[in-house]
Amino acid sequence: MKKYLIGIDLDGTTLNAASEISTETLAYLKYVVKQGHKIVIATGRPYRGCREFYDALGLDTPLICDNGSSIYKANDPLFEPVYLKIKKSIIDKIFKFSKDHIETAFYSVEDQLFVFRPQERLSFLYHLNHNTLITETPFDKPGLPEPYGIMMAIRRPFDLPFESFLEFETEGLLTFRSWGKDMNNAVYEVYQKRASKGDAILHVASYLEIPRENIITFGDGLNDVELLKVAHHGVAMKNAVIETKEVSDAITEFDNHENGLIKYLDEYLKKDAS
Questions:
Q1: What pLDDT, in 10s, does the model give residues 19-42?
Q2: Do residues 199 and 225 make contact, with C-beta atoms less than 8 angstroms apart?
Q3: In which element (H, E) is residue 189 found?
Q4: 199-7-238 Cα angle (round to 5)
Q5: Torsion angle in degrees (nearest 10) through CA of 133, 139, 143, 149
Q6: How far apart are the C-alpha atoms of 156 and 97, rounded to whole Å?
Q7: Radius of gyration of the chain measured on its C-alpha atoms
Q8: What are phi and psi of 158, to 5 degrees?
Q9: Residue among 51, 76, 48, 83 nearest 61 (CA)
Q10: Which residues, at least 6 apart from 187, have a Cβ–Cβ distance to it below 8 Å?
Q11: What is the largest distance, in Å, between two alpha-carbon atoms of the chain?
């Protein structure tokens, strides 16, 4: 039987609505690892928001966080970490240009969370733990660390000038992902152009010496499009957004609340072994 690299997103894919791994999913993925396959988590969460799941699965592979902007060695001491950060000078420019139009913005660096105009209703996105140091601050304050990416809610109609600024005034280094707009605000993830889950999973596959034809990936969100596109077999969850389903090679019969990932993976690996 082939030995696969299995790239898994967390939220909406491996985790249920309560942000938990079901007992069934945990047991099956551990079984897959014992069979010699390599499971690699590829998540938009910061390191502190996903390490508990990595440890629960007993993994020894590099850990992809921040939508591919960071790859940690985690339990693999030989892996050289990858950090694609945004230069402080560019952060300062973005902040000064948009400050008066920011509804809220935040970013994480390790166990630190930096927030401008925090909102309690969005606190679930902060992925706090008992070690998290929260700093409420303007982002152009001297001495702040460089982020892997920033989440920003921009008041409309400033969204269009903001998008234009990101495209033409950030030294050609940055891009953005839109997470939706309503009548009042537009939500963006701002990050380096060369950062994606897709590039990150290929980097890890090369390190692990696993050929592309042995890469299977699972995802559900816009940030999983590249993850599915680069794999030999990219699988969208039943609950995935349409953009992710459109680039997938297959769609699970069951959603993330129904252990859809492992039900699909089990059938796939059984067919491969037969």
A1: 999 999 999 999 999 999 999 999
A2: no
A3: strand 185-192
A4: 110
A5: 70
A6: 15
A7: 19
A8: -75, 0
A9: 76
A10: 151, 152, 153, 154, 178, 179, 180, 181
A11: 61
Beta strands in 44-182 (DSSP E): 63-65, 70-72, 82-83, 102-109, 112-116, 133-136, 149-155, 174-181
Token pair recorded at residue 270: 């059984």
Give alpha helix (H) positions in the chain. Answer: 23-34, 51-57, 88-98, 159-168, 197-208, 225-230, 242-247, 260-273
Classify 151 as helix, strand or coil: strand
User: CA 168, CA 223: separation in Å to the nearest integer?
Assistant: 22
pLDDT tens figures, 146-180: 999 999 999 999 999 999 999 999 999 999 999 99
Under DSSP, is residue 95 helix (H, G, I), strand (E, B) or coil? helix
Q: Please give the structure tokens belonging to residue 197.
A: 């889950």
Q: Phi-psi category of 172—alpha, beta or left, where left has phi over 0 and alpha has psi -120 to 50?
A: left
